[in-house]
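Lab notebook page, bench 4
Experiment: in silico fold of construct C2
Operator: M.H.
Input chain length: 132 residues
Purpose: comparison with the prior construct
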Amino acid sequence: MSAGHGALRSSLTPTALAAWTFLILFETLAQIALKAGGDRLGDGAIDPAWFMAAATDPWVVAGVLGYVGSFVAWMVILDRIPLSLGFPLTSICYVTVSAASVAIFHEEIGALRGLGIVLIMVGVIVIGSEGE
């Protein structure tokens, strides 16, 4: 199967589309939850007490579960889409994580960072339309 647009279109079964949706949701959850957990843990020394606090922090646990969910979704995706096409498409998470960081943590995205995100998305579109 070629890595062109035809490969993507033929690979986008309902299962693959659901896996992409879950990958984006789980990856975004993992990043946001781990940021919240890291903020709660603070700047303390990374010692056994810190590991215990991290292991019992609900945000850190949610982040780890987000990574487990993304792993499962990614395994389904890799079974259905060529890696050379699927991996670049994960860049969509740059948009969702950035948007969530603005909405939840009130972070600012400057013009240059915003332009970088747009360029990444243009790259995703180019990669996804190869062969047309």
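Observations: The mean pLDDT is 86. The helical segments are 5-11, 14-41, 48-56, 58-80, 83-89, 92-105, 111-128.
Next step: discuss at group meeting.
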